[in-house]
Amino acid sequence: MKIETITLREIRMPLVHFFETSFGRTTERRILLVTVHADGVEGWGECVAGEHPFYSPESVETAWYVLARYFAPALIGKQVERGAEVRKLFPGVRGHNMAKGALENAVWDAEAGQKKVPLWKLLGGSRTELPCGVSIGIQDSPEQLLEKIATELAAGYQRIKLKCKPGWDVNILERVRAKWPEITLSVDANSAYTLKDVEHLKSFDRFKLLMMEQPLWSDDFYFHARLQKEVKTAICLDEVILHARNAEAAAELGACRIVNVKVGRVGGFSEAIAVHDVCQKHHIPVWCGGMLETGIGRSHNIALSTLPNFTLAGDVSASKRYWKEDIIEPEVKVSAAGFIQFDQAKPGRGYEIKKDLVEKFTVRKEVVRAGMASA
Ligand code: OSB
Ligand code: MG
């Protein structure tokens, strides 16, 4: 495929309900979408960078800058047969994984469309039963949280993950366990604790959690290894796993027993597959994390979740939990038993894009084409 043009666009979509983590509350999403046009095929990618550099150093603004200035110009006019080849064409820009991932994934999406094969098969997937969990943010009151949990359990979700932080943890877990002693439950601290909190974190053990996600610093796995020796609860790493080498080091150190794979955080499908493989080699189960994606990123997460070591329920849940109307057709749906329903035979990403809606939500757009200078 010859890469003819690359379109960057920013869309804005209000969330059905605010989403709050230990680092802040989101009510409206700003989302950077990338479209690759090649030989009459269109590939779409979603950048999972947030509105602010709070979850990671990236944001919509930084991703736009590196995509427009470095990554898009490097691909324009190039003959690219596979999504897996994209990385070696990028200039030596350090970091900016979410920006890289959005563009690499758009080429995988185009490749699947061009070859008329389902994206999940192109990635090497084999699982067709995809168990779903939900991530529930910090609420205004414990009562509101209990109500939300009841709703999600009634919808069939198989695992409940609660965002936590000092002041919204043990007190909350006590309330939840009193009501639901047996549900599969985990917590995600998004780095809200330090080693001063070891005794406090040990007290989580009595809640029989499936895991606690990234309790310590966002760039650390060494001290997580120390913590894992102290707590019985399995540690799951999210923020710090930026590539397969980190995953390997974390596994060797015993820093975690579970890994959350987010395709954007690691810089695209190629590296996500590598992280998956390293974890599998070390007998560490993985699951697919979410970043409040639209249907485009969501469909890519579904495809990734079909790889064999994605044995735990992911955060890839139904479109309607986030959006009044998603930008794909059909929307992502979850069965009453808590599995993602997806069309296994459909080529490409398996979902159509509602272009009218994308256009309606667009607040800025830039087309990169041949003749524009590369860095
Ligand atoms: O840590 O998994 C996280 C959302 C934004 C930033 C970080 C995280 C999350 C989620 C959202 O948990 C999960 C979802 O998309 O439902
Ligand atoms: Mg997390």
Average of the residue pLDDT scores: 97
Instruction: List the helices and strands in order.
Output: EEEHHHHEHEHEHEHEHEHEHEEEEHE
Rg is 20 Å
Helix content: 25-40%
Q: Beta fraction of the residues?
A: 15-25%
Helix run count? 12
Question: How is the topology of this model organized?
Answer:
Elements: E1 3-21, E2 24-38, E3 41-47, H1 60-75, H2 86-89, H3 97-115, H4 119-122, E4 133-136, H5 142-154, E5 159-163, H6 170-179, E6 185-188, H7 198-202, E7 212-213, H8 222-230, E8 235-237, H9 244-253, E9 258-261, H10 269-281, E10 286-288, H11 295-304, E11 328-329, E12 333-334, E13 340-341, E14 352-353, H12 355-361, E15 362-369
Parallel strand pairs: 4-5, 5-6, 6-7, 7-8, 8-9, 9-10
Antiparallel strand pairs: 1-2, 1-15, 2-3, 11-14, 12-13
Helix pairs in contact: 1-3, 9-10
Bound molecules: 2-succinylbenzoate and magnesium ion.
Commentary on this structure:
With 375 residues, this protein is α/β, with parallel strands linked by helices. The protein has 12 helices and 15 strands. The protein has a 7-stranded parallel β-sheet with strand order 4-5-6-7-8-9-10. It has a 4-stranded antiparallel β-sheet with strand order 3-2-1-15, sandwiched between helices. It is globular. It starts with a strand and ends in a 6-residue tail after the last strand. Bound molecules: 2-succinylbenzoate and magnesium ion. Magnesium ion (MG) is lined by residues 188, 190, 213-214, 238, 260, 289.
Defining key terms:
binds 2-succinylbenzoate, binds magnesium ion, seven-stranded parallel beta sheet, 32% helix, 15 strands, alpha/beta, 375 residues
